[in-house]
Amino acid sequence: MADDAHAGDGEFVSNDIARASSVRSRPLPLRDATVGQGFWGDEQELVRTQVLPFQWCALNDNVPGAAPSYCMHNFRAAAAQNRRRTAARSQGDRFVPPVYTDRGFNVLPDDPERPDPDRFYGFVFQDTDFSKWIEAVGYSLAHHPDAELEARADAAIDIVCAAQQENGYLDTYYILNGMDRHFTNLKDHHELYCMGHLIEGAVAYYEGTGKTRLLHAAQGFADYVASVFGTEPGRLRGYPGHEIAEMALVRLYEVTNERRYLDLAAYFVDERGRAPLYFEVEDRTRAKREGATYVPNDNQPMPYAYYQAHEPVVDQREAVGHAVRAGYLYSGVADVARLTENERLADTVRALWRNIVDRKLYVTGGVGATAFGEAYSYDYDLPNDLAYSETCAAIALVFFARRMLELEPKSEYADVMELALYNTVLAGMAMDGKSFFYVNPLEVRTEAVRSHDARFLHIKDVRQKWFGCACCPPNLARLVESVQEYAYTLADDGGTLFTHLYIDGMAVVHVLSKDEDDEDVALRLEVESGLPWNGHVRAVVHVDEGDGGADDYGDGHDGKISVPFIFAFRLPAWAGDQIEVAACTTVPAEAQGRVNRRVRDGYLYLAGTWRDGDVFEFDFPMPVMMLEANLRVSEDAGKVAFVRGPVVYCAEECDNGSRLHCLHVDAARVGERAENVTVEPFDFKAGAEALDGKGTGGVEPVSRCMVRLRVPAWRDEVRDAKPLYSRWHPPVRRRVEAVLIPYFAWANRGENEMRVFLDIS
């Protein structure tokens, strides 16, 4: 990668930057990165004030018209069963636990109005709705204390912990249906997935509040799992059917420093896909026990590819199977590779990353093209109107991208992370925070949605209040509330702060003193960002002196403390050539003589000595880009999509009329002069009446400042009386302006058509 010239002869030499650009990094502690005002501050406030209370009602089945969750119902039932066991023992009576009966993957009450208080209902993974909610609550409380919310969370934790078994096991599906068969269907019954989400929620709540009750419960579950699984004689050599335990165990290791959790994560990664395939053995054993015929799992490219268990992880080079599972697995593999310095695993995730972003990534940052298995399809198969592109899959891609950044600071990972965040992830939630998309197509025709055609059953043209399988809403909430953890990472040696996302807020780094008797010095980077609507970013360095540590660094000529450090700022790909973009960065004149600068792998490294009040200013170009897909993507031949900065744009019927397939971009005029596309700030007004008594499609009135595009276009004149087929004649067209809005904002004004890729004339 080419380097730009040094801007000064600071204390740091080029070797320091070369070393910084090859180090591994980690997120800042939860309280050391904050979100201020601006775009993401608004999103977090929406989650905090609207989404979290709404989702708590949903977890308790108190949202009229929404599908019941049964999540907290199940925890209460399991806790009540524990109390009955304890009471029986205290009275010398024998407690008879439930004997396992397979009640299916999704259990519903015979009478929805009167569910049995002692029975399990919902999906086998229903417990995770709580875990993701409590994770979002933990992040929120870290920066916005709320006594009422914390009390509600503590009460919920009491219920959950009361359901835990004496050996540490905590999964209400088997607790209520019969523990005699637990861990006999790892492939489908999600016990280790539930453990993973419990760990993630517990860690976040501990970091946000300092409270340990849920953390200890999660440790108890993890310790029990560690005693059951492994390569030692008598242990199960299984691994999760739905991955997330791998990355969760790494988080548990990092917060407790207990090596056994990292070892368990590494075992799950290493054992997966090795012969004999554990899931095949499990399937054969279960079929024999139930007197059924074993049916091979061959409905994917390879047996068990849906579960990413078709071959050893270290040998995998293509993203296959269920897209959410895949993203969680790849995230965990990257974690294990980083912490165990396993270069073979690092090469694996690099190859998987390349396969995704080069051949299987939607322009909106979505992944998982096919509804069949909610899965990755074959290379370049990226349909627009049939796209699955699950919200959770985009969230998993964000997780994966950040972990790749922790492995190696290359801006392409942050580019994709940002793309997914601003587009598919945010599209998953209405602007009032009270309805959600599970899937995120790039083209919607209302007649297709209403037709009940089996091909389109997964497609919705308005968001839903809740889902029986409600993985996406709380997943989205936990990501938005923790977005600051994706904006920065700190080099393992503590000497470089990487800025990956430009978000209003603050990052704090504690620079170690050279003298153990002195206190550390805190460097605070205060960021003001115009993203995603303009490319102006201002970053101010603040130096907070300790009682003794300040003298360790010496004074500048003006009496200010000078602290040696490296700041690395991402140069977004959408802004253009890296060297040219780096030239748009302004460092104050008084700092020029003590700062070196270099561009490497898409980051601008500024190395030198820093003083309180030093300011960087970035003016990233934000041109409107008209993108075409690789010609191997047959769906997009002859079409273009519009992107400005990190935001992908789309056309909606309410701005452009129906039959969006008759709208053609005037590509020649767009390409002729940038001024031919109007970039227009405007006040987007969301709001829609519900389509039914369940509140489907209803959006409360909300206004947000956004940017829309006005693009030169043509529209075909449609003659309804024309026969189905007729001799070709030149089309009759009239000149129009296509109005494009951010993709994440679509479907906030009622049901209507939408398109991302538009035909060109």
TrEMBL record:
It holds the Pfam family Beta-AFase-like_GH127_cat. Residues 497-622 form the Non-reducing end beta-L-arabinofuranosidase-like GH127 middle domain. It comes from the Bacteria. Residues 624-758 form the Non-reducing end beta-L-arabinofuranosidase-like GH127 C-terminal domain. This is Glycoside hydrolase family 127 protein. InterPro entries: 6-hairpin_glycosidase_sf, Beta-AFase-like, Beta-AFase-like_GH127_C, Beta-AFase-like_GH127_cat, Beta-AFase-like_GH127_middle. It comes from Bifidobacterium bohemicum DSM 22767. One of its GO terms (biological process) is carbohydrate metabolic process. Residues 34-485 form the Non-reducing end beta-L-arabinofuranosidase-like GH127 catalytic domain.
